[in-house]
Amino acid sequence: MTHIITLTERAQATAKGFKKYPEHQQLVYGVESVVEAELPSPTVDLNGARSFISDLCLDLEVDVPSVERRKIDGRFVACASYRHYEITFRASTVSTLTLCHELSHLLVSQHAGHHKEWRNKFVDIARQAVSFEHGALLYNLYNRCGLSTAWK
Ligand SMILES: [Zn+2]
Asked: From ligand 1's centre to the CA of 25, what distance in Å?
């Protein structure tokens, strides 16, 4: 495995590619793409995504959102809609880490954006539903990139 300092530098460099977003959001995207490159999470098709989300929500004891595949805005791979309580993705498959990202949006306040409340939820869910290593690497890289999280 690559050294954590190298991964941190890579996340910071990748973040610069998302310059139309606020700085913390650039870093969130940078960290996530480094985690996906270093520890690719399993990918699933629409039925697999529905089962993954439904199993995870039953474990978390939260309502199960609908999961759909359709053409979505611009460059996003997936998105979450509070209004429809729905996760949508674009391609024929989606990574389970991306599904955790979107579900985390639905489970925190709508105003949380990609701030601390959302990051904590994402780290927890990724650790629980993808692997301990995914949660640990997200947590570590957020902190090393100057984004605080609280480890429960
Ligand atoms: Zn997001």
From this structure: 8
Distance 101 CA to ligand 1 centre (A): 6
Domain boundaries, the chain: 1-39+131-147, 42-129
Q: Which residue has the tokens 């990051």?
A: 119
71 band by pLDDT with thresholds 50, 70 and 90? confident
55, amino acid identity: D
Residue 72: predicted pLDDT: 83
Residue (of 33, 32, 38) closest to 123 by Cα position? 32
H or E element, residue 78? strand 78-81
- pTM of the entire structure? 0.94
Q: Does domain 42-129 have CATH number 3.60.20.10?
A: no
User: Residue 8 Cα, ligand 1 centroid: separation in angstroms?
Assistant: 20
